[in-house]
Amino acid sequence: MYTIENKTFDEIRIGDSRTLTRTLTKEDIDIFAVASGDMNPTHFGVGVSGGKPLGHGMWIGVLLSNIFGSKLPGAGAVYKSQNLLFHKMVELGETLTLTVTVTGKNEKDKTIQFDCLCTNQDGVTLATGTAEIFAPKEKIEPQVLPPRMARISRQHWVFDALIDRCQEIDPVTVAVCHPCDRVSLEGAVQAAERGLIRPILVGPEADIKAAAEKNDLDIKGYEILSTNHAVASAEQAVALCRAGKAEALMKGSLHTDEMMHAVAQRETGLRTGRRISHVFIMDVPAYDRMLLITDAAINIYPSLDDKVDIVKNAIDLAQVLEVAEPKIAILSAVETVYPKIASTLEAAALCKMADRGQIKGAILDGPLAFDNAISAEAAEIKGIKSQVAGKADIMLVPDLEAGNMLAKQLAYLANAEMAGIVLGARVPIILTSRADSARARLASSAAAVLLAHARRVGSQKKMTGGGH
Fold first, then answer.
1. Looking at the chain, which terminus has fewer C-beta neighbours within 10 angstroms, N or C?
2. DSSP structural state of residue 178
3. Which residues pair with 84 in a beta bridge?
4. Which pTM was predicted?
């Protein structure tokens, strides 16, 4: 859930600052047009050179209002004035970073003065301005955004919350495996610029530098470990993680199989006692919570033993992502145990294993058909009494094909965003796709940072005799 707190007038100091990053999507343009009534064809690509839709200028003002109302001062803040100067139009697909900085305080009327800056992904200034905000006088208890508000607004919030959580955590050293094209190198650079990671770029040095130069990416401050080819890149990146010189691994422009082959090597890889598995972290606007889908990328036809590890990996991730006791829906085509459908038998076995303490830290239910997993009403109509129905945090799919189709259907038909992480190895593995947005790549990195930090804290507790 999205928690809103506040800082009172007395708590705010000159120089305090907050930022917000948002990519302009077609949905943003549509929603703003409907809410404001501004249906200027320019915003839909009509009558514009090149036919590219342009964002509403005051969308920047709305994002600034977001910062003031939810970040600084937060709950209780009220606008007194806003002044904006627009330097460049906002184009569809641009990623905006908005920064507000406290420049003054007025004791008489309890207002705070802010400088406002909006830049795009290339550092180009889109808007500047000032704002005066009446700051709250009293501290309030943290307020949680009601699920229905998030659903009605149809805004993505999961990834922003993950990235924001990393702002107070030290960056994690990440071995970036073979980043020899724009997408993979840009993902690492963006995560580094946001303070999430310290990248070690592992791959042919000439190819990495050529990709950086071609795409205007500054990599001068990053360590490069040169290799001759993709297989060598995978071996060296894995070796860095195995030696403890990197706390996470990020896939670059090589094939997933090439990297995972190095990861899975018994003597030189990153295997543990757990089965390695993949989790999609989903932000589905029509669903009132973060949703994890597993396994949709690694295990093709997992056995019951495999699914035990897949479930445990997902539970570990959910708890790191602050879902204390995740609810797991074990999916099948039907909601009853049917001997001819193996996934229903495995679902029943997993639930009984949870009852007997073989799987801990979560509430399991299954078999559940997809409608029962996400809709309490559908489950009630079918007479299913379940703690999970309509509240699933994790969906365990029968096999890779079902999981992959489910995740991509949500992405392309329900406007969901998805980030990817591989678990069960010695370090978290950031597995991104060429089709991923910049925010999805950052969210994948943020999840790896949170996992690495949790492992670091866990190791320190063991060393000091805690955590029993």
1. C
2. -
3. 129
4. 0.68
